Amino acid sequence: MTDTTRDNALAVIVLAAGQGTRMKSSVPKVLHRIGGRPLVGHVLHTAADLGPVETLVVVRHERDLVAKAIADLDPNAHVVDQDEIPGTGRAVEVALEQLGGFAGDVLVLSGDCPLVDAGTLAAFVASHRAADAAVTLMTAVLEDPTGYGRVIRDADGDVARIVEQKDADDAERAVREINAGMYVFRAEALRTYLPAIGTDNAQAEKYLTDVAALVRGAGGRVAASVVDDVTLTYGVNDRAQLSEVGRLLNARTVRRWQLEGVTVLDPATTWIDVDAKLAPDVTVLPNTHILRTTTIASGAIVGPDTSLVDCEVGEDATVTRTDATLAVIGANATVGPFAYLRPGTYLGDKGKIGTFVETKNSTIGEASKVPHLSYIGDTTIGKHVNLGAGAITANYDDLNKHRTEIGDEVHSGSHNVFVAPVRIGDGAKTGAGAVIRKDVPAGALALSVAPQRNVEGWVEKNRPGTGAADVAAKARSAQKADDGAQEEDR
User: Which of 36, 81, 160, 170 is geometrically suited to a Cys-Cys bond with 273, CB 3.0 to 4.6 A?
Assistant: First the structure.
C-alpha cells in the first residue's frame, strides 16, 4: 500500500461489506446489476475518474465472490477484509490501516450508490478543502426522509451531529436533511477519532458518523455539502429500489446519446447499457435493448423489439425484431424480423439474415442471404450466396459438432439439409428438397430426388369414415363421371 504523505492526495474507500438482507437474494447486494454493471462497478468506475492514489474496497459478506468481481472490475483496487466488529466505522478503520502514513483526504463511498458522478464528487472534495474542514458530509433534502440518518444542525447552521433513523427521537425524525452516506475526511481525523467510537446504539455497530460528533466536540470543523440533485445519492436496499435506480440511470444514458445525435423514438421502452456505444445518426426504435459493450455505427436502424448483447452493427445496417448475442453485423446488412443470432455469428456487408432464421458460430459472406426459415450452425458461407427457404446445416452427429463450407455464388433450392462435414463448391447449385451428404464440386448441380409414386385409393382404404376419405370418394366419383361423359362425347 502507499506510504505517501502528500496532504493534497486523495484516497477512496468503498464500503461493500454488507449482506443486503432486504434484497432477499443469494447474490451480494453490491453485485446486483444495472446498466450492464454491478452496483459496485459503477462506484469504482466513478472513483477511478478522480485519480485517487489508492482505492480500497471493504468486503465481508460473500467475501470471495465480491473480491473476485472487484478484481475483474478494477484491477487497481485493493480488497480489505472487515473483521467481526460490525459497522461503517469499523470498515473505514480497517481500510485506513492499509493506507500507512497517508496524510491526504479520504473519500468514503457506498458500494450500493451507483448514480453519483465524478463531477459531483470532485466538487464535493473541492468544497471540503475550501472549507478547511476535518469532515465534510454530503447531504440532501428529501420530502420523505424515512430510513435515512438525519443531519442535525446547531443554531449557527453548522453540523452538530448525525442521528440514525433507529436512534432518532420524534423531533429528529422530522428533520428532512439526510446524510447521503458519502464523506470526505482528513486522514488525521480518522486516525484520531475512529478508535474512540463505541457500539452503544440501537444496532450495536461502530458508526462512521460518530466521527463527526467527536471532531465537533474537540473544536474541529464539520462541514456539509448539499447536493442539488438528490437522485445522485440514491442507494439500493431492496429490489424495488434497484429497479428505480436502474430506471434513472437508463434515462440519463438514453438522454446522453440523444444529445450526441442518436434518435431514440421511445426513451421509456429503450434500454442502453453504460458501456454501449452509438454513433450519430443511429435510429433506435421502441422496445429495444442495447446491452453490455454493443457498438452501433452511423446510419444503422435498430428495432423495434430487438435485443443486442455485446454485438457490433455496421453503418446503415437494419436490425428488426431480433435477438442477438456476440454477433457482428456488417455495413448495409439486414437482419430480421424474428431472427436469432447466437454467439459467433458474422454477417458480411450487404448480407441478409431473414425471418425466422437462427445462426450460430457461422460466417455469412458479403452480399450473401439466408432469407427465411433456416438454421445455420458451424458454417462458413462465401460471397453472393442465396440459400432457399428451410435451409439447415445439420452440424451435430450426436457426438460432435462439424462444419459446413459453402463457396461463393452458391444457390440452393428450398428445404435443403446440408449434413456436416460437407463442402459445397463455388458456383454450385442444389435442387429443392435435397439432402446433401457428400461434397459438391464447383459448378455442379446436386440432387437427391426419388421418383414420385402415387398409391391410388390409399386414404379410402386405410382411413375409412374420415372426412378425408369422404371427400376423396366424392372427388373420385365426380372424376369418374366426368371421364365417362368425355368418353361418350368422343
Answer: 36
> The whole model's pTM is what?
0.89
Indicate the class that CATH gives domain 259-446: mainly beta
Domain ranges of the chain: 10-233, 259-446
Cis peptide bond upstream of 195, omega within 30? no
Instruction: Produce one character per residue of 157-186: b if its CB has 16 or more CB atoms within 10 Å, e if not.
Output: eebbbbbbeeebeeebeebebbbbbbbbbb
Give the model confidence (pLDDT) of 206-249 as tens digits. Answer: 989 899 989 999 999 999 999 999 999 999 999 999 999 999 99
Which residues, in sequence order, are CB contacts of 280 under 8 Å at separation 6+?
Answer: 260, 261, 262, 298
Q: How is residue 193 written as a grid cell?
A: 477519532
* Catalytic member of 372, 384, 402, 411: 372
Q: Is 411 a catalytic residue?
A: no
Contact of 296 with 283, CB cutoff 8 Å: no
Topology (CATH level 3) of domain 10-233: Spore Coat Polysaccharide Biosynthesis Protein SpsA; Chain A (3.90.550)
φ, ψ for residue 231, nearest 5 deg: -65, -25
